[in-house]
Write a structure and sequence with these properties.
291 residues; MetI-like fold; globular; MetI-like_sf; cell membrane
């Protein structure tokens, strides 16, 4: 009976694992190989260049600008998204209608979100400048995506808006799993709402927050789609919105430098892996168990 179970498991998993190896693992392996070559994406020959592609990364001003911008995204987007999601989750606890409203951006593709926010930031007829003009703050009107000091922040606002709804639902589900008796006991003891959140709610949903930090950190190291569609250049103005994913795409499909683009991809992979490991270690804590 036991041998039959193992044969069934092997038979059931063989096809999915084969497809995963072909379509996921194999491209990764090829990217690692191509990162050490000068392949142009067309010819059958790929001449080995050793570590030249990786050495070039650290003298490439566009890559360094992208690394700096991705670093800023990494600092701002996860923290702002999680703070807002925790606030909305706590404020709308027990109210499902608001969660549907917050979750709405998840129903839209990234391309649609980018186009919508382009209209928001349009200088002459955009929603943001129109609102500022309506409330008498016309002096604050800007060409938002054309200002080097503002463009990346505009992209971050779109990223945060598009992500908050998912984490509101995630954190709300985690909060609903907390026994009501704990909250009632804390209220009877005279604890304030803020104290209950800090000492009971947050520790009990910390694993969800930890997962959110990792996923949002990975998203912050990407940002390609929004930058590609929303910004001038794309990546402008003055490389103020350049990100690593955009540099990879440009080198591969515009300049035909697939070897160099693969080196960028490998660097992104290692940065993402290191980030996930660091976040897991930095946020590691003893699990709070309910009796």
């Amino acid at each position: 009976m036991r041998h039959g179970k193992y044969r069934f498991l092997v038979g059931a998993m063989a096809a999915p694992l084969a497809l995963y190896a072909i379509f996921v693992i194999s491209p990764y392996v090829q990217a690692f190989y191509l990162a050490f070559t000068d392949w142009n994406g067309i010819s059958n020959e790929a001449n080995p260049v050793g570590l030249a592609n990786f050495t070039k990364l650290w003298s490439d001003p566009l890559f360094l600008a992208a690394l700096r911008n991705n670093g800023l995204l990494l600092l701002v987007v996860p923290l702002a998204t999680i703070v807002l999601a925790l606030f909305f989750s706590a404020a709308t606890r027990g109210t499902r209608v608001y969660r549907v409203v917050y979750f709405f951006p998840q129903l839209l593709s990234v391309a649609i979100i980018a186009v919508l926010w382009q209209f928001v930031y349009t200088p002459n007829s955009g929603l943001l400048n129109g609102f500022l003009n309506a409330v008498g703050l016309s002096s604050w009107k800007q060409s938002w995506l054309a200002e080097p000091d503002l463009a990346l922040w505009c992209v971050m606002a779109a990223m945060i808006w598009s992500a908050v709804g998912f984490y509101v639902v995630l954190f709300s589900a985690a909060m609903e799993s907390i026994p009501v008796e704990l909250m009632e006991a804390a209220l009877i003891d005279g604890a304030s709402s803020g104290a209950i959140f800090r000492r009971i709610t947050l520790p009990l949903i910390f694993e969800s927050v930890q997962v959110a930090f990792i996923y949002l950190g990975i998203a912050a190291l990407d940002g390609f789609a929004l930058v590609q569609i929303m910004t001038v250049g794309p990546g402008g103005p003055d490389n103020s919105t350049e990100v690593m994913g955009l540099g990879l795409w440009r080198n591969a499909f515009t300049y035909g430098k697939f070897g160099y683009a693969s080196a960028m991809g490998v660097a992104m992979f290692l940065l993402t892996l290191s980030l996930a490991a660091l976040l897991l270690r930095a946020t590691r804590r003893e699990q709070v168990e309910l009796a």
